């Protein structure tokens, strides 16, 4: 009985992992401040609330500060998403979860990167954990 439960649990975890890896790419190219997209490009303020439709995205609330790490560059020019982290007064000292949000939901208030790097996205850019 216990081995059946363990088998079901492992199959469930495997299936969840496979589903997470199969998320659609939102764009083929992105703009970053460095080769690993770990330097903050800019700081922005959320203009409105955004509820994440899936695990690739983050929730943002109107007025929150968002640190932008990369900007996706879609081929057709529509559906522009940026990647960033949201911090709030309550969690100032903690690293925020990084995810995508519509660029139209924020207003850039300060740019940190003078030069940027344009590179291809990979499947890992859209991996959900």
Any overview of this molecule?
- With about 130 residues, the chain is α+β, with helices and mostly antiparallel strands.
- The protein has one domain (about 25-120): SH3 type barrels (Roll), CATH 2.30.30.
- The protein has one helix and seven strands, in the order H-E-E-E-E-E-E-E.
- It has one helix at about 1-20, and strands spanning about 30, 40-45, 65-75, 80-85, 100, 105-110, 115-120.
- Strands 1, 2, 3, 4, 5, 6 and 7 form a seven-stranded antiparallel β-sheet that branches.
- A hairpin with a 7-residue loop joins strand 3 and strand 4 (about 80-85).
- The longest helix is centred in the first third of the chain and has 20 residues, at about 1-20.
- The chain is globular and about 35 Å long.
- Residues about 5-20 have low confidence and may be disordered.
Q: What's the overall average pLDDT, rounded?
A: 80
- Helical content stands at 10-25%
Please write the string of helix (H) and strand (E) elements.
Answer: HEEEEEEE
**CATH superfamily descriptor:** SH3 Domains
Biggest sheet layout:
7 strands, antiparallel
Shape verdict: globular
CATH class membership? Mainly Beta
Spatial gap, N to C terminus:
30 Å
Per CATH, which architecture?
Roll
Give the structural class.
Answer: alpha+beta
Number of contiguous helices: 1
Regions with pLDDT < 50 over 5+ consecutive residues? 5-21
Beta strands, count:
7
Task: List strands and helices in order, with pairings.
Elements: H1 2-21, E1 29-32, E2 42-46, E3 65-73, E4 81-87, E5 98-102, E6 106-111, E7 117-120
Give a brief rundown of this model.
It holds the Pfam family SH3_2. Keywords: SH3 domain, Signal. With 129 residues, the protein is α+β, with helices and mostly antiparallel strands.
């Amino acid at each position: 009985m216990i081995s059946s439960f363990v088998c079901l649990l492992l199959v469930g975890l495997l299936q969840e992992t496979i589903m997470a890896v199969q998320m659609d790419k939102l764009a083929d190219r992105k703009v970053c401040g460095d080769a690993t997209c770990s330097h903050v490009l800019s700081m922005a303020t959320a203009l409105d609330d955004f509820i994440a439709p899936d695990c690739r995205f983050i929730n943002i609330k109107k007025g929150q500060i968002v640190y932008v790490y990369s900007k996706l560059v879609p081929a057709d020019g529509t559906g522009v998403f940026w990647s960033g982290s949201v911090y709030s007064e309550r969690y100032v000292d903690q690293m925020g979860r990084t995810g995508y949000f519509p660029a139209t939901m924020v207003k850039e208030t300060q740019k940190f990167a003078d030069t940027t790097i344009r590179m291809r996205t990979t499947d890992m850019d859209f991996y959900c954990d």
